[in-house]
Amino acid sequence: MSTAAPALPAAEFDHGAELHVPELYQPEAGAAHSVATLDDIGPSEIAFYREHGYIAVREAFTPAEVASAIAGVVDLIMGKVPAFTGITFEAGAKAILPTLSPEQRQDAVRKVWFFVNHEARLKAISHHAKVLTVVRKLMGDREPEMFQDMCLVKPPRLGREKPWHQDHAYFDYPLGTPVVGTWIALDAATIENGCMQLLPGRHREGPIVHFQRRDWQICDNVILGTRSVAAPLPPGGMLLFDGLLPHGTPHNASANRRRALQFHYAPAGITKTTAEERMKHFGSEGKNVSC
Protein backbone atom coordinates (compact mmCIF):
# COMPACT_ATOMS: atom_id res chain seq x y z
CA MET A 1 0.00 0.00 0.00
CA SER A 2 1.56 3.31 -1.06
CA THR A 3 1.74 6.37 1.15
CA ALA A 4 0.58 9.63 -0.41
CA ALA A 5 3.13 12.42 -0.59
CA PRO A 6 2.42 15.40 1.69
CA ALA A 7 0.42 18.22 0.14
CA LEU A 8 2.56 21.21 -0.78
CA PRO A 9 1.71 24.52 0.94
CA ALA A 10 -0.56 26.90 -0.95
CA ALA A 11 1.35 29.44 -3.02
CA GLU A 12 1.51 33.02 -1.72
CA PHE A 13 3.77 35.45 -3.56
CA ASP A 14 5.98 38.39 -2.69
CA HIS A 15 4.65 41.73 -3.94
CA GLY A 16 7.30 42.66 -6.48
CA ALA A 17 10.32 41.64 -8.52
CA GLU A 18 11.80 44.98 -9.60
CA LEU A 19 15.61 44.98 -9.63
CA HIS A 20 17.67 47.59 -7.82
CA VAL A 21 20.38 49.70 -9.41
CA PRO A 22 23.83 48.19 -8.70
CA GLU A 23 25.11 51.44 -7.19
CA LEU A 24 22.93 50.93 -4.09
CA TYR A 25 25.39 48.31 -2.82
CA GLN A 26 29.01 49.45 -2.83
CA PRO A 27 30.87 47.59 -0.08
CA GLU A 28 34.28 48.77 1.03
CA ALA A 29 37.25 46.43 0.78
CA GLY A 30 37.39 44.05 3.73
CA ALA A 31 34.65 42.26 5.60
CA ALA A 32 32.71 43.21 8.70
CA HIS A 33 34.40 43.02 12.10
CA SER A 34 33.97 39.56 13.59
CA VAL A 35 34.93 37.17 16.37
CA ALA A 36 35.34 33.41 16.13
CA THR A 37 32.63 32.14 18.52
CA LEU A 38 29.85 33.38 20.76
CA ASP A 39 32.10 32.69 23.75
CA ASP A 40 34.48 35.37 22.43
CA ILE A 41 31.98 38.19 22.92
CA GLY A 42 33.21 40.07 25.98
CA PRO A 43 33.20 43.72 27.16
CA SER A 44 35.23 45.02 24.22
CA GLU A 45 32.89 43.36 21.70
CA ILE A 46 29.86 44.76 23.54
CA ALA A 47 31.46 48.21 23.33
CA PHE A 48 32.05 47.68 19.59
CA TYR A 49 28.37 46.77 19.17
CA ARG A 50 27.28 49.93 20.98
CA GLU A 51 29.50 52.07 18.73
CA HIS A 52 29.01 50.37 15.37
CA GLY A 53 25.63 48.64 15.76
CA TYR A 54 26.69 45.09 14.96
CA ILE A 55 29.00 42.18 15.71
CA ALA A 56 29.62 39.15 13.47
CA VAL A 57 30.43 35.64 14.71
CA ARG A 58 32.15 33.30 12.29
CA GLU A 59 31.39 29.98 14.05
CA ALA A 60 28.23 30.51 16.09
CA PHE A 61 26.71 27.09 15.31
CA THR A 62 28.16 23.66 14.63
CA PRO A 63 27.81 21.88 11.28
CA ALA A 64 25.37 19.47 12.95
CA GLU A 65 23.19 22.35 14.19
CA VAL A 66 23.22 23.92 10.71
CA ALA A 67 22.28 20.61 9.05
CA SER A 68 19.43 20.13 11.53
CA ALA A 69 18.11 23.65 10.86
CA ILE A 70 18.27 23.14 7.08
CA ALA A 71 16.35 19.88 7.43
CA GLY A 72 13.68 21.71 9.43
CA VAL A 73 13.33 24.43 6.79
CA VAL A 74 13.13 21.91 3.96
CA ASP A 75 10.46 19.89 5.78
CA LEU A 76 8.33 23.03 6.12
CA ILE A 77 8.74 23.93 2.45
CA MET A 78 7.96 20.37 1.35
CA GLY A 79 4.68 20.29 3.26
CA LYS A 80 5.70 17.77 5.91
CA VAL A 81 4.06 19.91 8.62
CA PRO A 82 0.44 20.10 7.40
CA ALA A 83 -0.64 22.88 9.79
CA PHE A 84 2.13 25.21 8.63
CA THR A 85 1.30 27.83 5.98
CA GLY A 86 3.94 30.54 6.47
CA ILE A 87 5.64 30.42 3.07
CA THR A 88 6.04 33.28 0.60
CA PHE A 89 7.35 32.65 -2.93
CA GLU A 90 9.33 35.06 -5.09
CA ALA A 91 7.10 37.13 -7.37
CA GLY A 92 9.44 36.26 -10.23
CA ALA A 93 8.50 32.58 -9.83
CA LYS A 94 4.76 33.09 -10.25
CA ALA A 95 4.67 32.10 -13.92
CA ILE A 96 6.87 29.04 -13.53
CA LEU A 97 5.79 27.68 -10.13
CA PRO A 98 3.17 25.28 -11.56
CA THR A 99 5.87 23.70 -13.74
CA LEU A 100 8.34 23.08 -10.90
CA SER A 101 8.82 19.77 -9.15
CA PRO A 102 8.57 19.73 -5.34
CA GLU A 103 12.36 19.82 -5.08
CA GLN A 104 12.59 22.72 -7.53
CA ARG A 105 10.05 24.70 -5.50
CA GLN A 106 12.74 25.12 -2.83
CA ASP A 107 14.50 27.51 -5.18
CA ALA A 108 11.41 29.66 -5.66
CA VAL A 109 10.79 30.48 -1.97
CA ARG A 110 11.48 33.99 -0.67
CA LYS A 111 10.53 33.67 3.00
CA VAL A 112 9.43 31.12 5.59
CA TRP A 113 8.08 32.65 8.79
CA PHE A 114 6.23 32.14 12.08
CA PHE A 115 7.57 28.60 12.32
CA VAL A 116 8.97 28.18 15.84
CA ASN A 117 5.78 26.60 17.18
CA HIS A 118 5.74 24.16 14.24
CA GLU A 119 9.39 23.11 13.99
CA ALA A 120 11.34 22.14 17.13
CA ARG A 121 14.74 22.15 15.39
CA LEU A 122 14.34 25.80 14.43
CA LYS A 123 12.96 26.77 17.83
CA ALA A 124 16.10 25.26 19.38
CA ILE A 125 18.23 27.67 17.32
CA SER A 126 16.11 30.69 18.30
CA HIS A 127 16.34 29.78 21.99
CA HIS A 128 19.96 28.63 21.95
CA ALA A 129 21.43 29.26 25.41
CA LYS A 130 24.60 30.95 24.15
CA VAL A 131 22.63 33.21 21.80
CA LEU A 132 20.31 34.31 24.60
CA THR A 133 23.29 34.99 26.86
CA VAL A 134 24.82 37.35 24.29
CA VAL A 135 21.52 39.04 23.46
CA ARG A 136 20.93 39.58 27.17
CA LYS A 137 24.29 41.39 27.42
CA LEU A 138 23.50 43.53 24.37
CA MET A 139 20.24 44.56 26.03
CA GLY A 140 21.97 45.71 29.20
CA ASP A 141 21.29 42.50 31.13
CA ARG A 142 17.55 42.60 30.46
CA GLU A 143 15.79 39.30 29.80
CA PRO A 144 15.26 38.82 26.03
CA GLU A 145 12.02 37.72 24.44
CA MET A 146 12.07 36.41 20.86
CA PHE A 147 9.18 38.05 18.99
CA GLN A 148 9.88 37.40 15.30
CA ASP A 149 11.15 34.35 13.42
CA MET A 150 11.91 34.09 9.69
CA CYS A 151 13.96 32.11 7.22
CA LEU A 152 15.10 34.49 4.50
CA VAL A 153 15.80 32.73 1.23
CA LYS A 154 17.51 34.09 -1.89
CA PRO A 155 17.08 31.47 -4.61
CA PRO A 156 19.80 31.29 -7.29
CA ARG A 157 19.39 34.12 -9.85
CA LEU A 158 15.79 34.69 -8.66
CA GLY A 159 16.30 35.97 -5.11
CA ARG A 160 15.15 39.57 -4.92
CA GLU A 161 16.77 42.41 -2.99
CA LYS A 162 15.68 43.37 0.52
CA PRO A 163 16.11 47.15 0.19
CA TRP A 164 17.92 49.30 2.75
CA HIS A 165 15.87 49.69 5.92
CA GLN A 166 15.90 49.76 9.70
CA ASP A 167 14.17 46.80 11.32
CA HIS A 168 12.72 48.99 14.08
CA ALA A 169 10.62 50.67 11.36
CA TYR A 170 8.61 47.42 11.15
CA PHE A 171 8.04 46.92 14.90
CA ASP A 172 5.60 48.67 17.23
CA TYR A 173 8.08 49.08 20.06
CA PRO A 174 8.67 52.49 21.69
CA LEU A 175 11.77 54.34 20.57
CA GLY A 176 14.60 53.55 22.94
CA THR A 177 13.61 49.89 23.20
CA PRO A 178 16.75 47.80 22.59
CA VAL A 179 15.81 45.53 19.67
CA VAL A 180 18.46 42.98 18.68
CA GLY A 181 18.34 41.15 15.36
CA THR A 182 20.19 37.90 14.75
CA TRP A 183 20.95 36.68 11.21
CA ILE A 184 22.27 33.12 10.86
CA ALA A 185 23.78 31.80 7.62
CA LEU A 186 22.64 28.28 6.67
CA ASP A 187 24.54 28.45 3.37
CA ALA A 188 27.69 30.42 2.66
CA ALA A 189 26.56 34.07 2.43
CA THR A 190 28.69 36.00 -0.06
CA ILE A 191 28.61 39.39 -1.72
CA GLU A 192 27.60 37.64 -4.96
CA ASN A 193 24.59 35.79 -3.50
CA GLY A 194 23.29 38.61 -1.32
CA CYS A 195 24.94 38.68 2.09
CA MET A 196 24.02 41.42 4.53
CA GLN A 197 25.44 44.89 3.95
CA LEU A 198 25.51 47.47 6.75
CA LEU A 199 26.04 51.17 7.45
CA PRO A 200 28.02 50.93 10.72
CA GLY A 201 27.34 53.58 13.33
CA ARG A 202 24.25 54.95 11.61
CA HIS A 203 22.00 53.38 14.27
CA ARG A 204 23.04 56.24 16.55
CA GLU A 205 21.32 58.72 14.22
CA GLY A 206 17.88 57.41 15.17
CA PRO A 207 14.89 56.78 12.88
CA ILE A 208 15.18 57.38 9.14
CA VAL A 209 12.08 58.08 7.05
CA HIS A 210 10.86 55.00 5.14
CA PHE A 211 8.70 54.78 2.01
CA GLN A 212 6.75 52.04 0.27
CA ARG A 213 8.68 51.58 -2.98
CA ARG A 214 10.15 48.17 -3.82
CA ASP A 215 9.45 47.40 -0.17
CA TRP A 216 9.04 49.36 3.07
CA GLN A 217 12.47 50.97 2.76
CA ILE A 218 14.80 53.90 3.13
CA CYS A 219 14.74 56.13 0.05
CA ASP A 220 17.34 55.09 -2.55
CA ASN A 221 18.48 58.73 -2.78
CA VAL A 222 19.59 58.59 0.86
CA ILE A 223 21.82 55.57 0.17
CA LEU A 224 23.23 56.21 -3.32
CA GLY A 225 26.92 57.08 -3.12
CA THR A 226 27.31 55.63 0.39
CA ARG A 227 29.97 53.00 0.99
CA SER A 228 28.71 50.02 3.00
CA VAL A 229 30.32 47.18 4.93
CA ALA A 230 29.57 43.67 3.70
CA ALA A 231 29.15 40.81 6.18
CA PRO A 232 29.87 37.56 4.33
CA LEU A 233 29.48 34.52 6.59
CA PRO A 234 30.18 30.79 6.37
CA PRO A 235 27.40 28.30 7.20
CA GLY A 236 26.81 28.62 10.93
CA GLY A 237 28.08 32.19 11.02
CA MET A 238 25.92 34.82 12.68
CA LEU A 239 25.36 38.56 12.67
CA LEU A 240 23.90 40.40 15.67
CA PHE A 241 22.71 43.94 14.94
CA ASP A 242 20.82 46.87 16.42
CA GLY A 243 17.21 47.43 15.34
CA LEU A 244 18.11 50.94 14.12
CA LEU A 245 21.13 49.89 12.05
CA PRO A 246 20.48 50.53 8.33
CA HIS A 247 21.09 47.36 6.32
CA GLY A 248 20.05 45.67 3.11
CA THR A 249 20.76 42.67 0.92
CA PRO A 250 21.11 42.87 -2.89
CA HIS A 251 19.68 40.57 -5.52
CA ASN A 252 21.22 37.08 -5.72
CA ALA A 253 23.15 37.23 -8.97
CA SER A 254 24.86 33.87 -8.40
CA ALA A 255 24.01 30.22 -9.03
CA ASN A 256 24.12 29.47 -5.28
CA ARG A 257 21.39 29.32 -2.66
CA ARG A 258 21.53 31.78 0.22
CA ARG A 259 19.33 30.70 3.12
CA ALA A 260 19.46 32.45 6.49
CA LEU A 261 17.50 32.36 9.72
CA GLN A 262 16.56 35.66 11.32
CA PHE A 263 15.22 36.17 14.83
CA HIS A 264 14.42 39.40 16.65
CA TYR A 265 14.48 39.97 20.39
CA ALA A 266 13.26 42.72 22.70
CA PRO A 267 13.28 42.94 26.51
CA ALA A 268 10.52 40.82 28.02
CA GLY A 269 7.54 42.74 29.34
CA ILE A 270 7.85 45.79 27.07
CA THR A 271 4.49 47.40 26.36
CA LYS A 272 4.12 47.95 22.63
CA THR A 273 3.16 51.27 21.12
CA THR A 274 0.82 51.78 18.16
CA ALA A 275 1.50 51.69 14.43
CA GLU A 276 0.45 55.36 14.31
CA GLU A 277 3.11 56.27 16.87
CA ARG A 278 5.74 54.28 14.99
CA MET A 279 4.89 56.04 11.74
CA LYS A 280 5.40 59.44 13.38
CA HIS A 281 9.06 58.52 13.70
CA PHE A 282 9.73 56.37 10.65
CA GLY A 283 7.64 58.29 8.17
CA SER A 284 4.75 57.72 5.86
CA GLU A 285 3.67 58.76 2.39
CA GLY A 286 1.93 61.71 4.01
CA LYS A 287 5.16 63.37 5.15
CA ASN A 288 6.56 66.34 3.26
CA VAL A 289 9.51 64.30 2.01
CA SER A 290 10.12 63.16 -1.53
CA CYS A 291 11.68 59.88 -2.59
Beta strand %: 15-25%
Measured as a percent range, the helix fraction is: 10-25%
- Name the CATH class: Mainly Beta
Radius of gyration equals: 19 Å
Overall morphology = globular
Structurally, the number of domains stands at 1
Uncertain stretches of 5 or more adjacent residues: none
Sheet bearing the most strands, described?
A: 8 strands, mixed
The average pLDDT is 92
CATH superfamily: q2cbj1_9rhob like domain
Q: Based on helices, strands and strand pairing, what is the structural class?
A: alpha+beta
CATH architecture: Sandwich
Assembly annotation: single chain
| Number of alpha- plus pi-helical segments | 7
**Count of DSSP strands:** 14
How do the helices and strands follow one another from N- to C-terminus? EHEHEHEHHEEEEEEHEEEEH
* CATH fold topology: Jelly Rolls
Separation, N- and C-terminal Cα atoms: 61 Å
Q: Order of strands across the biggest sheet?
A: 1-2-12-7-14-5-4-3
